[in-house]
Amino acid sequence: MDARFTAEQDEIRRTVREALAKRCGPEDVRAAVRTAAGHDPALWTTLAEQLGLPGLALPEAYGGVGCTITELALACEEVGRSLAPSPLLSTAVLAAPLLLTLGTDAQRAELLPRIASGELTATLAVPGTALATALALVGDNQGDWAGGGRAGGMQARRAGGTWRLYGEAAQVLDGHSAGLLIVAAHAGGFARSRTLLFLVREGGVRTRQTAIDETRSCARVQLRDVDAELLGGDEWVGTTEALAAVGDRAAAVLACEAVGAAGRALERTVEYVKQREQFGRAIGSFQAVKHRLADVYVRVQAARSAAYYAAWATGQGEEKAGGLALAQALEALRTAAAEGIQLHGGIGFTWEHEAHLYFKRAAGDEALFGPVHRLRAHAADMAGLFEQREVAV
């Protein structure tokens, strides 16, 4: 195994970093999150049309670049460094792989080229706050998280040869602005209970929610007798398996994004402690400060190694590495951001400085995709780490 990045991968990282350095500074991020869309449409045009990020991991037959999830993860690491608000995660990491895996030829031919070009944004909507459960990140996703045939959740019913959806999804990434919703809903009642995925192109009530992390827009989506199209064209029986596979790949991408943010938070803190003086000397020269930053550096580098391995493994078709890497990356980001705020002093948690944004990203991602201890526990269960074995006496 050659662990070095290829020339193409290095070029992707360099190009994305340069583009974001020009268009996504701290003031740009603050301005973008205040817009109705929650992101800068001009920046999204740059990422999509000029850099091709939404189609990076899509086949060339659908207008994509034809790279693996590894290249997309490395690009997202650079996006994480700047905390750039964009629909890249919801569109390219969550929605597009489901369309590619489960969609009919007609659905793929219609939708994937539009996603690859950036013309169409999409997202995954699951009932309530069950995103991490649906993606099998914190446990088995074979349960009744989609509704279970009872009131609540998201229900799908046939009416006159078409499907109609009823229910609510409380945490939908970019749900207020996405042009296409992929909705997980329960169908069949108790007799033929199953979870299916549907395409919703219009209808319903979408309300942008106040979130811990303003750079990661979430919305509440309410559907009442909304027309929907079954993803796949027939009653696909592998929905939960497909969601779990997408969840593992998404976790690897999120881990790379988180280590990008953690690395940048550490860089900003190191820059600050070299400038801030106390008792006539830079505070970065104090041994206690050096030790604290050294500990953060070790955590970030360890998390980066885990994230890169998970990205490589998923690119090779291997699974079950993403969740553990995500747990380590989120913990590293939380530590780097918290230490950054501490060492920046009073300005570290104010709106005028971006240090608090990195801490909020860590908290927001853990609320959406974690928490860390459950990510680790599920990874241990999947690996059989604590299986009970009979001991001969």
TrEMBL record:
Residues annotated as domain Acyl-CoA dehydrogenase/oxidase N-terminal: 6-119
UniProt keyword terms in alphabetical order: FAD, Flavoprotein, Oxidoreductase
EC number: 1.-.-.-
Tagged with keyword Phosphoprotein: no
Domain Acyl-CoA dehydrogenase/oxidase C-terminal span(s) in chain numbering: 252-374
Entry's Gene Ontology molecular function annotations: oxidoreductase activity
Cofactor: FAD
Oxidoreductase as UniProt keyword: yes
Highest taxon listed in the record's lineage: Bacteria
Listed InterPro entries: Acyl-CoA_Oxase/DH_mid-dom_sf, AcylCo_DH-like_C, AcylCo_DH/oxidase_C, AcylCoA_DH/ox_N, AcylCoA_DH/ox_N_sf, AcylCoA_DH/oxidase_NM_dom_sf
Pfam families, per database record: Acyl-CoA_dh_1, Acyl-CoA_dh_N
Family: Belongs to the acyl-CoA dehydrogenase family.
Protein name, UniProt field: Acyl-CoA dehydrogenase family protein
